[in-house]
Description:
Blueprint: E1 32-34, E2 40-42, E3 44-45, H1 56-65, H2 78-98, E4 105-109, H3 112-121, E5 128-132, H4 137-140, E6 147-151, H5 157-169, E7 177-182, H6 194-203, E8 207-211, H7 223-226, E9 230-234, E10 245-249, H8 252-256, E11 267-272, E12 278-282, H9 296-312, H10 314-333, E13 338-340, E14 353-358, H11 363-374, E15 376-377, E16 379-381, H12 386-393, E17 417-421, H13 428-444, E18 450-453, E19 456-459, H14 489-494
Parallel strand pairs: 3-15, 5-6, 5-7, 7-8, 8-9
Antiparallel strand pairs: 1-2, 4-10, 9-10, 11-12, 13-14, 14-17, 16-17, 18-19
Helix pairs in contact: 1-9, 2-9, 5-6, 10-13, 11-13
Amino acid sequence: MSARPAATAAATTATADPCCAAPLPVLGRDVTVPLVTGGEVTYAALDYAASAPALQRVWDDVAAYAPYYGSVHRGAGYLSQLSTDLFENSRAAVAAFLGCREDDQVVFTRSTTDSLNLLAAALPADCQVFVFETEHHASLLPWRDARVTYLDAPRTPDEAVRNLERALAARDPHGPALVCVTGASNVTGELWPVRELAAAAHAHGARIVLDAAQLAPHHPVDIAASDVDWVAFSGHKLYAPFGSGVLAGRADWLRAAEPYLAGGGASRAVARRADGGVDVEWHETAARHEAGSPNVIGAYAVASACKALTEAGFESLVARERHLIEKVRAGLAEVPEVRVLSLFGDDAPRVGVLSFVVDGWNSSHFAAALSAEYGIGVRDGLFCAHPLVRTLLGGAPDEPGECGAPEAAPGERSLNAIRVSFGAGTPDEHVERFVRAVRELVRDGARWSYRTVDGRCVPDTGADTSAATGADTSTATGAGTSPATGADTAAATAA
Length: 495
């Protein structure tokens, strides 16, 4: 049985000119959303860094398999056997996508966070961990039972390598050590010098795990070529939002560790002892850390996305995304009030992720206006990378700020930023609308008043914003309150 209709294969074929390649078909590309000022508009999903929309190819593959769904590994029936083959073939497809070495293991998890917590639980005793403060919390926080050295944010790729080498040279050379580093920042989108950091780690007897959550959807990831020991990523950022993630890499620490979860599937044999206790023989394969009934559909969705991106051609995807990045950067550069956040400088290579702040605006207010008045979905806050955003904004380590919208009075500086992110499914029109909206909001101000509800800035739909010119913006979570243009308040209230 082929779980993917043949008709969907052609949808992922790239055009001859990569810069002019069409976006890959994704779900939700025709969804319309209401505007607070009246009417509807096609939704511009520019929050790929949080969760990317499902590729149409992935959705079709899952829909084709769903009637054949069955429990894996332990069933004698046809559907169980078919599902087992599908599950293990998905593991092989992910291994191929990541360029795994022959003896590497691919473990299916729930997410990048789950993958890195699994690796943290598998660390040998007295392991030293080195991690930059620039990491997402998923890779910054799991190492609670290890000796952790947090490295300051570097300002160039070379400085990152030098800082790591200096820290590793000062470590106890006799114990195990692990370096955790991102491939692409979820805040700035900047690419990190993974291969050089891996070489530095290995030169000092340490291992390295790559957080590829933001890298894998945008660039090829090759474990063998980059010489990293493990890679972790999430399906929901790779156009496969079905609750699965991956930890792939060296098997020895995983094989020696206690199972991440104890239960069926992880155990090879269980027997009662004469004294009434239980003896357990655990699997040494990836199943050791996949106890319980696995997420077959999630694993298959990840494998489908891996195949779709490979078939589309990363050269084409990277070229088209670079085209979109240049459009966004050029548009924002024309607005003096906008400051794009960066560690490595304006010329640093990056994926389709940019964060910025706007003078005179609270970032939550700005993001709310983009959504309510233009139908554009971005993200505001600290992006679960609090130390990094505080560093980039020049905030004190203990200055208030959170992933959601903080309470802030009009005109008060907010320790948060706005993030726009896009990828293989983003049409040009979405980034063009975003650039135009930024320009208009900065020039004209918001056309509606906003208030904070449960920590989130939302349109004040009960306010009288007639002609919007004397609108009371005191309830907004930031400034940017130059007199707004006229609005059809009757339609807006109804919306």
